[in-house]
Specification:
GO terms for molecular function: DNA binding. The chain is α+β, with helices and mostly antiparallel strands. It is built from 16 helices and 4 strands. The two termini are 35 Å apart.
Length: 348
């Protein structure tokens, strides 16, 4: 089966282009492009080159997408609200699939040496809280709040890409890339929400790499809660939870006040009526849309892709060489491994 057409389709969607727009940019008719995308016909090398150039990728990228992985449009785990528009999350899912293929090409050329690894567990045999505790133990994480969550993930070989999603209703997506984990995170989210998203997506990678089970979102939420707020440690602070200490707990644990309330409720440390009264107070103070002290939390920013870029540059590779390795036409299109000055040498 030929997946070249699917690769063209997914890359076009990731770029936010209609079929007609791409056809005009590539100098082909929309009818011809439709036949290419549906695999009714295969473009010759010259036409494929024009299509790839219009998409900002190399012809090898489009051909590799089909050969290496079969169907390119692999479903992604996604942390989103029910009101998120399907058109928006489908575009983001396409973008993650494209990043997945760029990363796959890059990892064929370089060896990624990670200090740790992200383990996987059978979600039927291992409950989310136990999985979170096992990950923390395997990574030898200190007891208590997680400091520098992105750094822990990147030390385990997780490639984290940030982008402005243009909406606050989708927080992040994740997939595995030939044994390498990748996360696509909404850069406009406040730090507390971003950290919860990272832990949530880690839960998907740990628990849902192979097995398809019911209620995967609840499992990822339970994993994230235990990973960021181990119950044995935080329990004393959640007994008789008072609103006036929530801001201090947020500063300490790096999660939202709402997440702390949910942790207390799920653990049976506050009752439903108390939870309801707290959220009514949140609404009255405008905290449901904008919590206090979020700006005081240390921002989480990825650095692994910049480390890769710096290490490859030290090998004498030009920015365009690095872009070509990942399947981009030039460095200006390379938003997977962008250049950054500095002495960052950790991974390659």
């Amino acid at each position: 089966m030929n997946f070249l057409g699917e690769a063209i389709t997914v890359t076009r969607r990731a770029r936010g282009l209609t079929q007609g727009e791409l056809a005009e940019m590539a100098g082909v008719t929309q009818a011809a492009l439709s036949r290419y995308e549906t695999a009714m016909r295969e473009p010759d090398n010259e036409v494929l080159g024009r299509i790839a150039d219009a998409l900002g990728v190399t012809p090898r990228f489009l051909e590799h997408a089909g050969r290496a992985r079969g169907a390119m449009a692999v479903d992604a785990h996604m942390r989103r609200r029910q009101t998120a528009k399907p058109t928006v999350w489908k575009k983001l899912e396409a973008q993650l699939n494209v990043y997945r293929m760029h990363a796959s090409m890059l990892f064929e050329e370089i060896a990624l040496r990670a200090e740790q690894r992200i383990p996987t567990f059978d979600p039927i045999a291992t409950n989310p809280a136990d999985a979170a505790r096992l990950v923390r133990m395997q990574w030898r994480m200190p007891i208590g709040p997680v400091r520098g969550l992105m750094q822990w993930l990147e030390a385990a070989g997780c490639l984290i890409i940030e982008s402005d999603f243009g909406t606050s209703r989708i927080d992040g997506l994740s997939q595995w890339v030939d044994g390498h984990p990748i996360m696509f995170i909404n850069s406009i989210a406040p730090t507390d929400r971003k950290r919860l998203t990272l832990a949530h997506e880690l839960g998907h990678l740990v628990l849902h790499s192979e097995e398809v089970v019911e209620d995967v979102e609840s499992q990822a939420n339970a994993f994230a809660a235990e990973f960021l707020m181990p119950l044995d440690v935080i329990r004393p602070q959640l007994r008789n939870l008072q609103v006036n200490i929530l801001a201090d707990l947020k500063r300490e644990w790096g999660v939202s006040m709402a997440a702390i309330v949910e942790r207390a409720y799920d653990a049976g440390l506050i009752k439903a009526d108390r939870r309801t009264s707290v959220y009514k107070l949140f609404s009255a103070r405008g905290w449901k849309t904008s919590e206090p002290v979020s700006q005081e939390l240390t921002p989480e920013r990825p650095s692994l892709q910049y480390d890769i870029s710096a290490a490859l540059s030290d090998r004498g590779l030009h920015e365009n060489d690095i872009a070509s390795m990942a399947g981009f036409t030039s460095s200006k299109h390379n938003d997977l491994i962008p250049p950054r000055p500095g002495n960052l040498h950790r991974v390659v």
